[in-house]
Amino acid sequence: MTASFMAQLGSRLIANGYTILPIAPGTKKPGRYQRGVWVDYPEWNRHAERPTTEVEVATWSGWPDCGIGIVGGGVAAIDIDILSDPDLALQIEQLARTRFGDTPALRIGRAPKRLLVYRTRAPFRGHSSGTA
Asked: Is this structure's pTM higher than 0.85?
């Protein structure tokens, strides 16, 4: 069994200052694992009001196939949703890196689609973006 994205990356993300939350498998929405099943997480937005704790990450890391959502407000993302032309997707990524700077936070889901995540200078009212 492979460790979830949360188990693999959760602690590193909060160590780098990101606020995160659990994402239900196969979705882009916050979820909770209760009594052996994934359920909705209606109070997920409370995570925008405080940093994520290591205790939360440890708990979420035990949830099967737990994805990671980065809470918006302190980050912005460039979502390159191009499937038909891999060269164009890469050109847009390179343009974004030239214009906004380099970022190690790159997610490639269904290639060649990709998402680049950047920190903002000042927080803004945002929402979650599922990353895994």
From this structure: no
